[in-house]
Amino acid sequence: MDKLVISVAKTKNDTPWKPLMIPSDLYDQVETMAEQVGMRKGYLAIELLNFALERVEIKEED
After folding, report:
1. Cβ proximity of 10 and 41 under 8 Å
2. Measured between alpha carbons, how far is 37 from 24 in angstroms, rounded to an integer?
3. Phi/psi of residue 12, nearest 5 degrees
4. pLDDT beyond 90 at 11
5. Which of 26, 39, 46, 55 qualifies as a cystine partner to 22, CB 3.0-4.6 A?
6. How many CB atoms within 10 Å of residue 39?
7. Quick check: helix, strand or coil at residue 1?
């Protein structure tokens, strides 16, 4: 299984931000993880989404 290893480094992102709604249980998980690694929730969410998007496979229905 692939794992995303999060470094406790601060990152900067000058790209414009747009809101994305997620369920509160996922928000709570990201918040907890962000506290553990010392990152802002938004920056951690970017790392998690980039990791997932690089590995997603879209399958056409038959």
Report:
1. no
2. 20
3. -120, 140
4. no
5. 26
6. 21
7. coil
Angstrom distances, CA of residue 37 to CA of 5, 26, 30, 55: 10, 17, 11, 23
Q: What angle in degrees, to the nearest 10, is found between the helix axes of 24-37 and 41-55?
A: 110
Q: Measured between alpha carbons, how far is residue 55 from residues 10, 20, 36 in Å?
A: 24, 20, 24
Alpha-carbon span 29 to 41, nearest angstrom: 10
Please state, in angstroms and rounded to a whole number, the distance separating the CA atoms of residues 12 and 1.
29
Answering whether pTM is above 0.85, one says: no
pLDDT(21) > 90: yes
Give the residue from 46, 36, 35 showing the smallest Cα distance to 11. Answer: 46
